[in-house]
Design a protein that fits this description.
CATH topology of one domain: Immunoglobulin-like
Number of strands: 15
Radius of gyration: 69 Å
CATH class of one domain: Mainly Beta
Strand content: 15-25%
Strand order of the largest sheet: 3-2-5-6
CATH architecture of one domain: Sandwich
Largest sheet: 4 strands, antiparallel
Amino acid sequence: MRTRLVPVLALTATALTTAPAAFAAPVPSPTPTTGSPRTAQVEATEVGGLRIHKKDPEGRSAAGAAFQLLDTAGKTLADGKTSAEGTLTFTGIAPGIARLKEVNSGSPLLGTVPDQDVVITPGEPTDLQITDPYKPAELTLKATDKTTGKGLAGAVVNIAPKGAKDAKGTFTLTTGKDGTAKPPLPVGKKTGTTYTATETKAPAGHRLQTAPVDVTATPGASVTISLTNIATNTAPPTQNPTERPISRPTESATDQPTPGSSQSASASPTGAVPSSSSSTSPGTTVPASPTAGAEPTGSLANTGSTYAPPCCLSPVASSSSREASPSTSPAAARRQSAQSSFPTPANTDAPTATDPGVTHSKASGI
């Protein structure tokens, strides 16, 4: 009897000691859930961003510029505008390559930059500086004929920043059929940039305009450069035209002398007396001098330039004398005939008008 109770008690003890182990429920291990601190930490290290700093060409911050960030498929990842400080930050962007597009510069004076690819890296946003250019001026180049005003094709003009020491910013334009060329003109300052236009080749049939033309271009404004060319068949003026004449032109020449000219030319000097060799014909009366006295009488009346002695009478007069004097001897007649064959000598011994008290008078016959 006693021997049977021992095994029962042993079994009971074994059951009591092993029961708690047989009925204990297993403790489940925790399963991960979304939004846990560990998952958020992993995601933060796998994204990045982009911070934009917007400037104008002179280094000033530009506010109000609008940008878009696109993925490789053209889907918008982020967009926004720059602040008053000229900054714009995109965050939470997956690492990789994205496309940055400037939609608007935010200023009437500024242009936009071309689209560009940017690389997004994990971690802090990447800094990117963007400088917008000033809007170019709208240039119109004109070449015209100076006389007709018609546009001229083929004018070649060099455009260069004024005072430039090298060829940077220099370009060449050629006018078209209407005589114009209309390119954009870059501007580097808010107050404007000055250019010098120089014609290097004239249009066909025209002279080159040698004088350069300066022009100042401001952002977004319109500006015109005008060149005029003279046709080669037009002679350049040699001098400025004179003023209109004030006095009347002189009358045409005539054959008649002007009043007073003949009198002054023919008038003899005051007090002049004709010489004894004057060609006064015999029998011509010489006017007496106004200062002379009364005409003399007697033997002096037969003296003067018209008096001829009997020896100098012409043959006709001699023959008449011989006929009138029949008593003349033959020898005297021969002597008178010989004397009459010689020319009548000039009467150099005759008294002149300068002799005191002697005046010219009519010759008296012998």
